[in-house]
Amino acid sequence: MIMAKRKTTKDAVKILHGRYIKGKPKRLESLKKEHEALDIAVQIYNIRKQADLSQKQLANLVGTTQSVISRLEDADYSGHSLQMLNRIAGVLHYKVEVRLVPEKPGYAFG
Question: Within the chain, how many helices (H) and strands (E) appear?
Fold first, then answer.
């Protein structure tokens, strides 16, 4: 009798996802929120660096403190306000886009 060879993965992300996230909706939702916070933090950091500004210089342009900019660039910070993001975007000649999308594909009113 020939046994089918079991396909294994060495991809750490896939292994961790299967072990800790798959089949656990609350953990998946938490992971998505963390990813969104990281995305915002990275965007602010990258745009500031492209403008060749320090955190203090950007803070002065926006009318806030360096520590506020530092917190906004921290992936663990979840207090991003739309008002502050608009102020930062404005001084860097960007705009903020907000989109509302259905949580589940194909599920929307209308």
Answer: 5, 0
58: which 2 tokens?
């950007």
For residue 73 the two structure tokens come to 């660039």
* Tens digits of residue pLDDT in 73-101: 997 877 778 899 999 999 999 999 988 77
CA 101 from chain centre, in angstroms, equals 16
Residue 65 forms part of a structural domain:
yes
Strands (E), 1-110: none
Structural domain of 44:
35-100
pLDDT in tens, 17-40: 888 888 888 888 888 888 888 898
Total count of domains within the chain: 1
Report d(CA 55, CA 13) in Å as an integer: 32
- Inter-residue contact 40 to 86 (CB < 8 Å): no
Q: What is the CATH number of the domain that holds 60?
A: 1.10.260.40
Residue 12 counted as domain residue: no
Amino acid at 70: S
